[in-house]
Amino acid sequence: MTRNSRRWSRALPVAAGAVVLAVALTGCDGKKGGDHKSDAGSGGSGGSGGTDEKKTSFQLGEASPTQTNDGAKAKGKWTVTPTKAETGTEKELAASGLDREDEKPEVPVFVWSTLRHQGGDPMTVRDMKTDINVKTDGGKRVGELIVLMGDAKWRDDCPAVDAEKKLKKGDVEKVCTVYLVPKGQKAAAVELSQGFHSPPLEWPVKN
C-alpha cells in the first residue's frame, strides 16, 4: 500500500509555446477526502431509475445515488453516471503534448460521464467530477489528470472540460476525464470516492 501522492509534470503543447502543468492524484485507496457523500435514501436519476443507497456496484450507464457536499460553502446535490471507459495507447499519450518529468511507461484511460445537478446551490463542473477515479486490473487506483496550464490534446470525442462552468438544478453536462495508468494495465472499474470513511462506488469495465 502506498501513500497518496501528487505527481507534477511539465510539457510543451504540440501546437503552442505555452507550458502545460499537469497533476495526477494516485494512492492506495483512490480517495481524496472532502465532504462528498451519497445522500441516504435518495436514488440516482438520469440512468436506469432509482438505486438502493446500500448498493456500491453499478453498470456503466447507471446513475450514482445522489451526491452531497454538506461541508462545502456551496451545498449542492448531483448524480454521476459513468457511461464508457477505454484504455488508450502510448501513441496517444505521446501525441497529447504532455512531456512528463518521470517518463514512466504509461497509457491514458478515457472516462465519459454525465453529471446531473439535482438541487441546492449551483456547482462547478470541477466540483461535481472531482471524485471520479479509475481502478486498474493491476489493483492501482488513479485520480484524474489535471492540466493546470495550457492544453493537452486527446481524442476528438474527449474535448477539454469547462471545469468552471456552473450548473443549477436540472442542468446536465457530459464530460470526458483522462487518467494515466501503468503500461500493461487496463481500466477495470470507474470509481466514485465517498470520502475517507466509506468504500467508493464502482462501475466495472469490460475489456
Largest sheet: 6 strands, antiparallel
Question: What class would the helix/strand composition place it in?
Answer: mainly beta
What is the typical, i.e. mean, pLDDT? Answer: 81
Which CATH architecture?
Answer: Sandwich
Question: Total domains, how many?
Answer: 1
Region (Disordered): 28-102
Biased composition (Gly residues): 41-50
Protein name: Lipoprotein
Biased composition (Basic and acidic residues): 29-39, 87-102
Structural summary, described in words:
This is Lipoprotein. Keywords: Signal. It comes from Streptomyces iconiensis. The structure is a single chain. The protein is mainly beta and 207 residues long. It has one domain: Immunoglobulin-like (Sandwich). The chain contains two helices and 13 strands, in the order βββββαββαββββββ. A six-stranded antiparallel beta sheet has the order 1-2-9-8-12-13, with no helix packed on it. The protein is globular. The N terminus is likely disordered.
Structure, briefly:
With 207 residues, this protein is mainly beta. The chain has helices at residues 90-95, 125-129, and strands spanning 5-11, 20-27, 37-38, 67-68, 76-87, 106-120, 123-124, 132-136, 141-149, 166-167, 172-182, 187-192, 201-204.
